[in-house]
Design goal:
- Helix 1 packs antiparallel against helix 2.
- The longest helix has 26 residues.
- The two termini are 33 Å apart.
- This protein has 151 residues and is mostly helical.
- It contains four helices and no strands.
């Protein structure tokens, strides 16, 4: 059995289904999934900066935790969150510009933020869980909107 070309036309006039061009490939402005991730990443970064400033400025804002495995001074936690938050916001700016380095850095930084907020759970559980959820969505959005083009 042989397969015949369609008659009366030019045959293949466009891209094959499933091979359509998707935004977010690192060229030009960011696509839909990348913009979603950039907005969430910037939100996560701003919240981390606020979290860090609060922990640095007043140690009495957060409750004291008894014996906890990841026991740091609240000022140390504040600096960790502040620095991580600033780097996350800068990475979000790179994502808005459609940069591939920012996509890879965003995935790594969101992972670091997940770890930091997991260890922050005893101090502010609801706040930490909220940022954990945002970071998981960031990782998901960055991984699913990343396309590799062979053009």
């Amino acid at each position: 059995m042989s397969q015949q070309a369609p008659t009366g036309g030019q045959g293949n006039t466009g891209r094959a289904p499933g091979n359509a061009h998707r935004s977010g490939d690192g060229g030009g402005l960011a696509g839909g999934g990348t913009v979603f991730a950039a907005v969430l990443l910037s939100l996560s970064g701003v919240l981390a900066v606020l979290q860090g400033i609060t922990a640095i400025a007043k140690d009495d804002v957060y409750t004291r935790v008894g014996n906890y495995v990841f026991e740091f001074d609240l000022t140390a936690w504040g600096w960790i969150h502040l620095i991580l938050g600033i780097v996350v916001v800068l990475t979000a700016v790179g994502l808005f510009m459609g940069s591939n380095w920012a996509r890879a850095a965003g995935i790594c930084l969101a992972g670091l933020s997940v770890i930091a907020n997991f260890m922050w759970l005893p101090y502010q559980p609801w706040w930490a869980l909220t940022i954990l959820a945002i970071d998981v969505f960031v990782i998901w959005a960055l991984c699913t909107s990343w396309t590799h083009t062979a053009e």
